[in-house]
Amino acid sequence: MPQGVPQTVPDDGLTTRQRRNLPVLAVHTGDGKGKSTAAFGMAMRAWNAGLSVAVFQFVKSAKWRVGEESALTALGDLHETTGVGAPVEWHKMGQGWSWLRANADADADHAAAARAGWAEIARRLSDAQHDFYVLDEFTYPLDWGWVDTDEVVRTLVDRPGRQHVVITGRRAPTALVDAADLVTDMHKVAHPMDAGRKGQKGIEW
Q1: Can you tell me whether residue 171 is helix, strand or coil?
Q2: Which domains does the chain carry?
């Protein structure tokens, strides 16, 4: 696709502008490093374009802090004070789901917490509440059967408006991959941990 020009143009009755403005469902999967990093990079690009961003982190503990969270939260604060960019929200599974904070046992059942997270995301998609969603490590609740893949695919395919969604994680279900507009399968060639080196600040978090 040289210089961003498609090699083929479908006979779908849409104009170039209409086709360009279609919402994108992206999936970053595979065993290689960088799936979430790439998604958060896209979120920063969306923020710069004035698109409201909502990040939902599955699996990771609500107590963990990652560099991208601090950066994107700061961008959200910048928007509130200056109007630059767009609003940013960041939510984590378990007690990090703000709508479940009254439930002291939210972390006790991870599957139930994942389903509650997805239910809230589905509601927001139905209401077209955000412009750009990152569902980080969402493939795992799907792979483990905590959340129904067919329901997720239906909701994503039928989402109204121009809401972009990026989903990350290994072992993305085939149905999700088939429904996506953009799929990247990251393959590991080498990793410092192969040589016994632990994760480093600024590299892994």
Answers
A1: coil
A2: 22-162+179-185 (3.40.50.300)
Neighbour count for residue 77 (Cβ, 10 Å): 11
The whole-angstrom separation of Cα 187 and Cα 33 is 8
> Tokens standing for 172?
């993305």
pLDDT per residue as tens digits for the range 82-105: 999 999 999 998 767 878 755 545
Q: pTM of the predicted model, to two decimals?
A: 0.89
- Rounded to whole angstroms, the Cα distance separating 70 from 24 reads 26
Q: Residue 168: what are its φ and ψ, rounded to 5°? A: -120, 160
Residue 111 neighbours by CB under 8 Å, 6+ apart:
141, 144, 146
CA distance 44 to 37: 11
Residues 31, 16: Cα–Cα separation, whole Å = 35
Label residue 131 exposed, middle or buried (CB < 10 Å: 0-12, 13-18, 19+): buried
Single out the residue of 40, 61, 1 nearest to residue 133, CA to CA: 40
Helices 35-48/67-82 angle, 10° precision:
10
